[in-house]
Write a structure and sequence with these properties.
442 residues, alpha+beta, 4 domains, 7-stranded mixed sheet, 5-stranded mixed sheet, 16 helices, elongated
């Protein structure tokens, strides 16, 4: 009898056939059943055989198929027939349980097609296994409710809502879209929403409406980044409107110097300051727009909502007719969202992860071709090694009174929140996840 190359103790290998791509292993179940599968009586007899093919882990770079000569039995008590069960085989699919476990973990970091080709199955089977795996993870993996919640978006095939933990720079959920019903439904099923104190978001009305409906006590703060970005966009409109007045050479120069215009004045190098001064002198409208952009940024140095509002009103009165249209979107946004924008000056909560998230968006767009949203979401939320944990130590316990010369200690550790949880999972660390994707680990 050949060696048991399968390393499965429940089977006896009777024959091995090998070719350039596959191992075909014939095997028998080592311990046949002794009782009826229906009535559990001991009177059973052989009643034929059939061959079943189950797939196993690839070995030596080759696909593996196990041909099990499965025995059929008939019960002499109930007269029913049954086949002997196959140990170490998955109940739903014709493959070993260890192969199913391997596919689950591989599918997080690899394409379904590559796994199917390596194992010798169809892509749909890999997809089905992966779906079951993710459904199971959804039941077991729980992220902590953030006190400072961020609601933003990421483009995975189309815009999706991203929920984050701002304090820990982690992602806790990615929703299929950014519509109000989807966001409301997600927030409604969370437990412990009373822990959410602040929600930072962009100026997308469905986000605001969903939060006000489900978490009315949370303070909504419009993220500073989304507001000041509109000042840069206004400056860009002025720059582009000047292109018709320029020669081709000047137009190329202005295009290459665009990054100088978008940079903060305090961060300019001497060379950049010289370039900016030349453009502003030659095109006063551009210089005025740059000054308005810088003055708007200065509003965020205010120490209170009242001061910020006064600075905005003063800034608004300095807008000249030449550039007012370019800044109209910014003015309208401030006026429509003023209470939420001004909340920033009471609670300076901002999505500090924005730069990391933008990096993530870029790499996800590159790797996203050919993947479904469900697969991309799983790759992000359940990437092994990207979770941010915090170990939680139990409270100090007084020893029990001395009893018969021995010192007895409490064996049960009570935690501050009354649970026995020893570790908090804050979600997927954005910086680690971005590095993993950039290095090809996902």
């Amino acid at each position: 009898m050949p060696a048991n190359i399968l390393n499965l103790s429940s089977y006896d290998v009777t024959h091995i056939n090998e070719n350039d791509h596959d191992y075909h292993v014939t095997a028998l179940v080592k311990n046949p059943p002794q009782k009826c599968a229906h009535c559990h009586s001991g009177g059973i007899r052989g009643f034929g055989r059939r061959e079943q093919l189950i797939k196993d882990l690839p070995m030596h770079g080759k696909r593996v198929g196990i041909y099990v000569d499965t025995r059929r039995y008939q019960c002499q008590s109930c007269n029913k027939t049954f086949y002997e069960p196959l140990p170490d085989a998955d109940e739903k699919r014709k493959m070993t349980t260890r192969l199913v476990d391997w596919i689950c973990k591989q599918a997080i970091t690899r394409t379904f097609t590559s796994i199917a080709d390596e194992v010798g199955i169809v892509e749909g089977t890999v997809r089905s296994i992966f779906r079951d795996y993710i459904n199971e993870l959804e039941k077991t993996v729980r992220f902590e409710i953030p006190q400072w919640m961020g609601i933003d978006e990421i483009h995975l095939i189309k815009p999706r809502c991203v929920v984050s933990n701002i304090q820990n720079n982690t992602i806790v959920e990615i929703l299929k879209d950014r519509n109000k019903p989807t966001v409301t439904r997600y927030l409604s099923q969370l437990k412990g929403l009373d822990k959410v104190h602040y929600v930072a978001m962009d100026m997308w009305k469905p986000y605001r409406d969903a939060v006000e409906t489900v978490i009315p006590d949370a303070q909504i703060v419009i993220d500073k980044f989304h507001v000041v970005r509109m000042a840069n966009e206004a400056l860009e409109r002025v720059r582009k409107s000047l292109r018709e007045q320029l020669t081709p050479k000047q137009r190329r120069g202005l295009m290459h110097d665009r990054f100088v215009l978008l940079k903060r004045e305090r961060d300019l190098t001497d060379k950049e300051a010289f370039l900016l001064d030349g453009w502003c002198q030659n095109y006063p409208e551009l210089g005025l727009a740059y000054r308005q952009k810088e003055d708007f940024y200065a509003i965020y140095d205010a120490k209170s909502p009242a001061e910020a509002e006064a600075l905005f009103n003063a800034w608004l009165h300095t807008l000249t007719p030449d550039i007012r249209d370019a800044f109209s979107d910014l003015v309208r946004a401030w006026q429509n969202w003023k209470p939420y924008i001004c909340n920033y000056f009471k609670h300076p909560v901002t999505n500090a992860y924005t730069e990391s998230l933008n990096n993530l968006i870029r790499v996800m767009n590159r790797m996203g071709r050919g993947y479904s949203f469900e697969a991309l979401r799983a790759k992000i939320l359940f990437a092994e090694g990207a979770f941010k944990y915090e170990k939680k130590r139990p409270k100090f316990q007084r020893r029990e009174p001395r009893l018969k010369g021995a010192i007895m200690y409490r064996m049960v550790c009570d935690f501050d929140d009354g649970s026995t949880q020893k570790m908090k999972n804050y979600g997927v660390d954005i910086s680690i996840l971005t590095d993993m994707i950039a290095q090809g680990l996902l």
